[in-house]
Thiol-disulfide isomerase/thioredoxin
Amino acid sequence: MKKLLLLLMMGMFGLGCSQETPKVLKTAFSREALNQKLEDEEGKSITIQQILDHHKGKVVVLDFWAGWCKDCLKVLPKVEELEKNNPNVDFVFLSLEKSKEGFDKSLERFNMKDKNNYWFAAGWKNDFNNYIDLNWIPRYMVIDQKSTIAKYYAVSPEDPEIQSTIDQLLK
């Protein structure tokens, strides 16, 4: 009986701990999502729109991560490999650390300084993350040269659709 109860509890826990593909794969951002504020490494406020404007004309990979996320850290070498293999693509790292101190420590600890790093000071639940159905990290999105969404949902940097989307956009 105890084993059955334990299995049932593990099954229920497991159901709540996995990424679920959103039902609608969006191709554009809402105005509210674009107005979401983040902070850069210096603590200056910046919106998603300003970040995308800075990279307009380039293919961008958005990487949602945090230093406390074991899954994120496990694939970090694969993210670096994807970045190295795509020198004409801009990588933007969006941190879900719980504090500015945690953000700064993670950037230092994982050699992420001086990349395109931003932190959701508002926390996980915000207009941007709610709009893109962010339910787990790591998560990856590919944004095209016009700042529209080319690949809405990927949970691994090894997802072959990330590279094929990049290749299509760079043709």
About this structure: Confidence is low (pLDDT under 50) at residues 2-17. The helical segments are 2-15, 31-34, 48-54, 70-85, 100-109, 127-131, 160-169. The longest strand covers residues 59-65. The beta strands are 37-40, 45-47, 59-65, 89-95, 116-119, 139-143, 149-154.
